């Protein structure tokens, strides 16, 4: 059995159809608690409780989709653009799955207030060649690229939302129509409906792709372009890094040289132990010259001066008394 009912999430408190909807003032999300009971009055373990929340998500990027729209500035993907600058818009297939070609049609831009302008019609032709070119498929058939000749913006919003129909061809794509002939025939005056489907041929499948970019004033262009270049900013930071690198290299070479010199010196130096000095044998009869008592002679001196003079003594004689 199934039961269907509707809940008015916009009902105000006190209204007849108000059902306890909770509103978040910060995110504008509306939530309601729902209980599915097995028994009318008893609360059982098999009962289910749910919280249903509806949020105001708006329009955002979906990079997980198999079809992605990207803005490029000189082969660098950007999410912030500059008013009046030229960019490339690329529709890519992340999972080609045997795709042999890509066509892009029915592109339009809009803001938060749903102000919409059409860029590419359902045939894939640009509405204004001065704003955007036609999407040209790549050689591998996995992407298509168009040139946005002048970035535009809406008067009251700095965000531009872009949405396109991307047609994947699993065989041979439909022959592209001549946009110039269509313009001459007045086909460009045909209206469009936002989110309308482009014409699909046999073996073709359409997908919806979208992206969002911020449009900045030209005065802020250096801040955006500097992040897209393959250079180091500011320039003095590069020179500082080079100087520090050279100094580090010089110090490293000096340390290697000093360590090598010290290791070689330690390897070639032999530790020489000093031999103990040879102490001459003590001779108590050896003469000691230069005493304050005059010249003294030992018994082994000259024959004319045998013995010691009276009243004299020498260091050797004093020491000899101990023996």
Automatic annotation (TrEMBL):
UniProt keyword list: Disulfide bond, Membrane, Transmembrane, Transmembrane helix
Residue stretches making up the ZP domain: 1-186
Residues spanning the membrane: 236-258
InterPro entries tied to this protein: ZP-C, ZP-C_dom, ZP_dom
PROSITE patterns on file: ZP_2 (PS51034)
Pfam families: Zona_pellucida (PF00100)
Listed name of the protein: ZP domain-containing protein
Lineage summary: Eukaryota, Metazoa, Ecdysozoa, Arthropoda, Hexapoda
């Amino acid at each position: 059995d199934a039961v269907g009912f509707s809940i008015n999430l916009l009902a105000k408190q006190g209204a007849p159809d108000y059902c306890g909807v909770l509103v978040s003032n910060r995110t504008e999300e509306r939530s309601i608690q729902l209980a599915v009971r097995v028994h009318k009055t008893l609360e059982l373990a098999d009962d289910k409780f749910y919280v249903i929340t509806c949020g105001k998500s708006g329009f955002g990027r979906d990079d997980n989709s198999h079809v992605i729209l990207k803005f490029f500035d000189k082969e660098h993907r950007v999410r912030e653009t500059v008013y009046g600058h030229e960019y490339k818009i690329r529709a890519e297939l992340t999972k080609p799955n045997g795709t042999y070609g890509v066509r892009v049609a029915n592109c339009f831009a809009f803001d938060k207030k749903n102000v919409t302008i059409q860029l590419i019609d359902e045939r894939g032709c640009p509405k204004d060649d001065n704003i955007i070119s036609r999407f040209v498929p790549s050689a591998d058939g996995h992407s298509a690229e168009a040139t946005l000749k002048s970035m535009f913006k809406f008067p009251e919003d700095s965000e531009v939302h872009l949405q396109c129909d991307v047609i994947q061809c699993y065989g041979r794509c439909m022959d592209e129509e001549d946009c110039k002939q269509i313009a001459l025939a007045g086909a460009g005056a045909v209206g469009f409906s936002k989110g309308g489907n482009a014409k699909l041929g046999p073996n073709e499948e359409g997908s919806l792709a979208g992206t969002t970019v911020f449009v900045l004033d030209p005065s802020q262009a250096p801040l955006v372009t500097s992040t897209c270049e393959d250079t180091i900013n500011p320039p003095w930071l590069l020179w500082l890094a080079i100087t520090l690198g050279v100094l580090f290299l010089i110090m490293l070479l000096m340390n290697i040289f000093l360590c090598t010199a010290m290791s070689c010196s330690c390897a070639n130096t032999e530790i020489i132990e000093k031999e103990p000095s040879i102490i001459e044998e003590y001779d108590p009869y050896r003469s000691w010259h230069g005493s304050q008592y005059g010249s003294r002679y030992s018994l082994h001196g000259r024959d004319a001066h045998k013995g010691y003079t009276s009243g004299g003594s020498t260091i050797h004689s004093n020491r000899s008394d101990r023996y």
